[in-house]
Amino acid sequence: MTLSQADFNFVSTLVRREASIVLAPGKEYLVEARLIPVARAVGAANVAEFLADLQRRPNPQHQRKIIDALTTNETSFFRDREPFSALTDVVLPELIKSRASVRKLRFWSAASSSGQEAFSLAITLQENLPAGWSYEIMGTDISTAMVERATKGEYSQVEVNRGLAATQLVQYFERAGAHWRVIPALRRNVTFKHMSLTAPFPPMQPFDVIFLRNVLIYFDVATKRQVLQNAAKILRPDGLLFLGAAETTIGIDDNYERVAAGRTSAYRTRNAVAAGAARRG
Amino acid sequence: MTPMRAMVIDDSRAMRMILKRIVTKLNFEAVEAGDGQEAMDRLAELTEVPELALIDWNMPNMNGLEFVTKVRADPRLREMTLVMVTTESEQSQIVRALAAGAHEYVIKPFTEGAMIEKLALLGLVPTGANS
Amino acid sequence: MSVEVEVNESDLAEMVEQVWESYLDPEGISPLIPTYDENQPSEVHSSVSITGSWSGHVVFASSLAAAQRAAAAFLAMELDEVSEDDISDTLGELANIVGGNVKAMLPSGAQLSLPQVVLAPESSARYPNATRISGVYGIWEEEPVSISMWHSSADHKEEGE
Lengths: 281, 131, 161
Hints:
Chain B: This is Putative response regulator receiver domain protein CheY. Chain A is an alpha/beta fold.
């Protein structure tokens, strides 16, 4: 059963209004697939019935479930691997030199979803920082359900099968019933907070590295630009922004320049921004 | 160029079929065995040592842990990459297997994507082979 | 310690879901839809026994049609290519996988038997001194499928074998 145009429009309008997400036409099948479990969870016979009901009687909780279902990113540990290899091979060695006087790093996993990216960053730092160094990782997401889940730091067997080396699994996780839970020593360096990227950013200390991967794709160009501008303000002058494999700032925000990072690319703010210039491109 | 070989060792024919299908997709030539002893016998016959072995834990005659231990003690079989594929998932079991010389560990049930990623982690997947 | 504390119904449901995600429904379009009907009929079943620190069984039961579909999905075959051996082997491995995951949550020292496959309804099986303590009952591709856990109340020793 395919989603009707009217239903698709209803959902599109809802998520655009509530989360600034733009659903491209042609994504009806994806929307439907994501909403089937939501419809089932609330006892509706199918997605059409669920949406018909919602249009008759607005229900903030059900609306929230729709937004959560559509903003949830497929994520896994060490997803795409290359950015993490770039950290290990190139970025961290440089930061270890340039931050030698503070011996502390701050990373941000923006749109952290269920938390695997943030914990992958934590493992990478844990494995590569010399003794005496500390790190803080902030994970933020628009979905409170995801923030709760990431905060628990518990993953299913199927989830820990992906992306983690077996040695990492036994070193950084412990069994908790049917699940695997991040160990306290790793957990304590990661904080998850609810945050909407499309609203003004709350005050945050600057970051050495920002992972903003596979989330800009949901936004229109103006919103993308706004998010990138806001991110630039809290990225250290020599800090790096990592986007998703198929994403770029080029054509959207020329306050960034692309730099090679291992086998992939990352983005750094141009000196004009770093110097606090008011000019915006 | 000679294709790489993967040995699939599990007492479940159904599971062997799944594993064979995956490694064949990755351009390995598959060889199977129903238990550790059968696998050792096959290895003795083969002139070329398989690059990879996917090994169940619980099998009759010789279980996966014993097989791993024997392989790691045999200089001729040094180059084999050993991956456990099993439902045994207690932390201590995984540690034991890694200590005995297994290079990686996949817990059943596993998705095809997860298995391919594990093999990629071990450098056994030609780039572009995984979808 | 009661096993209900160690392996509750939602743990079992999650294990079943992971088996579907991994082997029977990798694209996420054909899940097992709960019916909560403990008495739904079956035509074939497979089981593993757990002994040692805990005694009981894990049973997979379904219609023959569901078993055929499971084999076709598991082995990446067309339905009409599936042999009786394929069905048998698949049912056995499914019981083994769920049983193995259940065992992993029990106190150390539990052991799993080899799977038994019976091409007869689950209701024909007799598990002496055992009660069904938990189960996932549902419909998959319009066919009944259930996975249940049985606990043996008296620790009876396996003689011989």
